[in-house]
Request: fold
Amino acid sequence: MPRVSIISVVRSEFLKLRTLRSTWLSFAITAALTIGFGALISYVTKMQFPKMSFIDKAYFDPIAISLVGTLFAQFAVGVIGALMITSEFVSGSIRTTLAAVPSRMRVLVAKAVVLKFSVLIVGLICAFAAFLLGQVIMSGPGIPTATMADANTLRAVLLAGLYLMLLSLLGFGLGLIIRQAAGTISVFVSILLVLPLITFLLPSTWRDAIAKFLPSSLGRSMMSAPGADAIPLFGPWAATGILVGYVVLLIGIGAYLFEHRDV
Amino acid sequence: MIEVQHLTKRFGDNLAVDDLSFTVKPGIVTGFLGPNGSGKSTTMRLILGLNSPTSGTATINGQRFAELKAPLREVGALLDAKALHPGRSARNQLVALALSNQISLSRVDEVLDIVGLTEVANRRAGDFSLGMSQRLGIASALLGDPGTLMFDEPINGLDPEGIRWVRDFFQQLADEGRTVLVSSHLMSEMALTADHFIIIGRGRMITEGSKEDLALSGTGSVHVRTPLHQEFKQLVADKQWQMREEADAFVIEGVPVAEIGDQTFAAGIPLHELSAREVSLEDSFMALTAGAVEYTGRRMRKGKL
Reply:
């Protein structure tokens, strides 16, 4: 007799994700922000380049500039991740889901897998597009641009896609814990926008010690050439490791609660 | 077959389900009755492993729900008709469930047809009326063609035609040898739908039995009218019957109507009326759950709110 397997649950969750308008809307916003903002900022930077100081020109990082849209798109993918689980709690459909698949870990893994691959694929496509478009826009006399062959390019673009994936999982983990859509999205936005503001109120030695641990700072490390920033940041791979650690921790707590709480 | 043994669920200080034990047998429709907040839904969630019991067990065909390999093929449940994502079409709600349990997609169209939603299958479920949502919920319960079915308040929101359909349909499912558990807080409705009744109040078992068992456990009464008041009262006193006087009749409680007829005939008392007033299932349900109702409305006096 056919039975519930992890593959059958993944297929079910994939159908659920792609049959919602909110998913397509969020992915469209992700693409628009990543590519659109990348293009806009690339253009603005090109216009300002001749007026830049010598130091700014020395630190000029055309890869990071073209990928800066991901720092806006992170909110859209966070919403996708958060809604993936909170929409089930808000509507009560989680009961229908678990009455069909009693193993909660199977449901959780299936949702995480579907989310991960969907956002990773969309994120990578957007990051490549943003990079290529940004370089085309910036190219001009005297302005350094990057090509795919450059040392940092492939790493930065791949990690930009990965960053979006990890942020969507962060939203998913928060959603598992908080269970309410509005609450989850508020906390997610606070972590990305409010925490950095708070660190800037701290004495600079404290700030330098703390700020590099923020998800948005980790994202900057992942997508730029090393050492191109005013505040000390981790290297790209260390930053990736730390962000993965956050995701594992949050989803771990969320999974424990999901397994043990009534629905 | 659903077996519930000493099932208890505590939410903080509140005992939602209190040492509940019962068996739901195949082949008949079992009505699960109790006032609002009596623990019916919690019990169903406990059976489905959605809530974990404080103590006790619930099994389906001898297995805990979590142990079932293909749950939808064993148990179909309608818990809350509105508990679905409003943005997804009715058909896709069912397809998602079918995929998870490896049920063929032709079965999705089949159950849509059974509940009469084929024409609106591609509409967003959020636009459905409560009655249509109930039908969709019934369709998802049927998806795996399971031997055990649970419906929580399935009649809410249905139109008269829908109620008639659901009633016949549940009976048909039971006739096919399935185990059917239907909850409701309306005895009058369940009296027509179910063959066996489990009545709970404040999480505790009040009584269990067939229609006849329940009607008999209530006290039936006999109305008597006679021109010979004094003689009749004397007879009642001699026989030590329980009697009260109403405007135009004597009402005797707990004595079979034949007994009263025989005795009045023997005593030579002419009768103008001798009628047994049967206690309806609803009356006995109200009497049984009177102490277990969570919220009671005040009876309105004429002209005053």
